[in-house]
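seq:
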Amino acid sequence: MTSDSVQEAIARELNGNFAPSPLLPPINARLNERLEIADVVAYLVDEKAVQVRSAAASAFQHWDAEPLPAWAPGTAPKTSQRRHLIYALLDIPGEAFGHLDFALPVDNGSVVIAAPQPWSPWYIAKVRRDRPFYWDAYERVLRGSGWDPVAVSKLSVATSEVVSRLANPTRDEPYQSKGLVVGYVQSGKTANFTGVTAKAIDAGYRLIIVLTGTVELLRAQTQRRLDKELIGVQNIGASDDYINDQEWAAGKFLTHDSDPNTSNEIPAIRRLTGLSYDFQRLGNGLGALHYEFVDHKKPLNHPVNLYSSNVRLAVVKKNSSVLKKLVEDLQRIPTPLDQIPALIIDDEADQASINTLNPDKWKNDQIERTAINARIADLLRVLKRGQYIGYTATPFANVFVDPVDTENIFPKDFILSLERPVGYMGGADFHDFDDDTPDEEKNPATSNEKAHVRFLYAGYDEEGRTDEQQQALDSFVIAGAIKLYRESKGAKPFTHHTMLVHESRLKGDHRALADEFKSLWRKSAYSQPASLARLEKLWTDDFEPVSAVRVEEGIQSPASFAELEDFIGDCAGRIATGLSPVIVVNGDSDTEYDQDDLNFEQRGVWKILVGGAKLSRGFTVEGLTTTYYSRRTTMADTLMQMGRWFGFRRGYRDLVRLYIARNVPGPAGKPTDMYHAFETIVHDEEEFRKELGRFAITNNNGEPMMTPRDVPPMVFQSQPWLKPTDPKKMYNAEQAYRGVGGEPFSFTMQPPRGNGNNNKAHFNAVKPLLQSLEDSGTFNVSGSRGTRQTFDARYGIVSADSVREAVSLFVWDPNWDIEPHLAAMDNAIHNGLLKDFAVLLPQPRTRQPVAIKGWEGTLPLVNRRRQDRDYRTGFTGTAVREREVIAHIAGSPEKDGGALASKLHTRTRGGMILVFANDPNPRFRGKAKTGPVDPVDFATLFSYALPYAAEPTPRVGFRVKKDGQDAIVDAT
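struct:
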């Protein structure tokens, strides 16, 4: 009996599609041996037992996530209670539970905010087992393309979460479920909706409409991906779409194990669109929409008819005339539309789909709609069994849709926030959040900014612009040469290598910018020895030190520039091959430029791409390594979608470079720092996701703590000029209560400094608290890589009423409201759950306290950056690491602030940290190192945590804004 045979036997019994049952008897029967349960557990906790661990992770993820399985009564999904019941059903002894919890922890996966559903769970394990054809096929595609088995399992669980919230396609009464799936930019949302489509087809949905962006480039890319990975060769048939496609010719498109066209058990997929054509009026070909019936006395959605009927699938641009043709053709078919289970997938759902007409201008109380929104509403009106799922990485517009509008696309039934995928490079990978390290001490090993970001300071016409473009272009060439070097050492070939240049949305600017880079390419002389000295300097100063500390495990990098030289000419040759090294990608035809067409499917693309909107939403720029970005926009969701440098960069993460402008002209000629703008929206987006996660729970009655209708007011934007989305898309509601026990919140959302009077008022507000800090001590915090660190602080115990009075005197950014936090504090005080706070003032070890005007003692002043140097809306943080201590004092069971924090803890005590940050008049750049300092020149920042016992379960409350108030958002 070999280890491999034992692993295989154990893995075969771990199947999440069946209820958990005793493991040992079938394993021993399969092996014809006598293992003990301890032997099985040993394999389950052994990291080297890859086959067993992979199967166990998959099975546990499915079992953990089942909504209401008959085998687990009274247990909630994704809880330790459910997991321990699973162990017991597997006949695993209790003493092993802790070891398994550590080795295979419960995976919380996607965050789901859902309304109560008007049905019992229908998408259960038996349904998935009985009809798995298209999901099984797609799963094989994913595994064959290199997906890790655990990642496939995570996708399976996430897609089941979505499908389970759609209506049962066979239910008697039609029901339209509407939901929103929130991913990350360039993070694999297409994989999720492809998996959802596969499972929906298997479950009985027979009309699939995929709405892509507004440009044909994205529609065709989506069509091809679905054709290749889901629809398959047999369903595509004799189409001419892929005659010149290399992957089609090489047999890389999915070929199903059974031909759906000749099977009575498997539905065939009839394509209503193709790679080269959007939906067209069918005319005499309307029969393509005629559904097959076994029993005409029963409706199509009856199981007798439904499972033997074929699927119709259309991938359609968001174009009013195209959608109108589709609606009109649907209304001409003989099958009653209210019998057709339909699924509408809206990719990039915040683009074009939203109704942006102002309700104040509606006539006679009749809802008026923008053209594309009207067509989507038409689809939902005629398809009574139509389910709507929006997909986006920037959900703000969708959650602001009016939920009362029954034909609109507000996600009334669910919002699902996908977890960040393993291997993904997102906004956080290009910024150093919560890092107070001085810039001069940062290095590529510890700083994402130093590793991947290079700044542009020259204006459009200023001296230095060419030098900055030259460095970006050289970076692109060196990165390409390193990729070729890695190929020579056995790395998987890099089919694509691209550079994105994004400076404007105007086509005329694209042409001029393309000409600049064409000219620069000719002058760069990459095929000549003269360029080598310049490239070697960039290699030595940039790529060599970054790759030394950032390269992925198992990936090789050149030991010297000499090893790289031979590959530079090859790289330059690939980029220059064809008509031009530059491709302009915008609404113009390719024939208007002397260039190759952009087609990632038919050939490898090693090019510089210049463009705007076409490259800023939905479309995947394959092989993107170098970005030159200097465009300003006033909407956060638009800005986030421009982050094409986000995505998966397997084998070349260390080579990714972002060249981004720090002084783009803004309103009244004021420069805008686009790097800080991205930092702000990435931070705000992460906070939004965290808020969803905090409140994606049920209350004591088993009801959702929050439903999709409650989400809009949770959106906060730090930059006043950068709105969450188009103001026309916003909804009228506000948050009224926010209470989270034992978790610190940083109150940094202060308005612009102005004359400094707010700073002075804030300092006066906390003087009574400072007078109570009579003790000193040392506290512990978690350091990097599992280490423990200490800091010293003055501290004292202050009544809750005194703290409440102090914070009520602060002035806040008009885009942010402290009242929900104060409501929670008031509630805790009223109920006797909050009596006092332990207030801490950390003492920096490297900065001496300074004298303060009007204050008898000295205070430590630290440096904290405001969110934007021109608009100055708040600060980047308070005391990031030290917050662990006040969480411990407040009773958080997950934090450890050391012995003194334990001593200070009581059930009715909160924790608070004060920080004083230099904030001088911007005309005087110097920051105080000696006193006395005027209180107008430093800001008072604080964080606090309510007692854990006051709000052990997070609570949030909302209300509709009152008439006559300025709405957070227009009710459109």
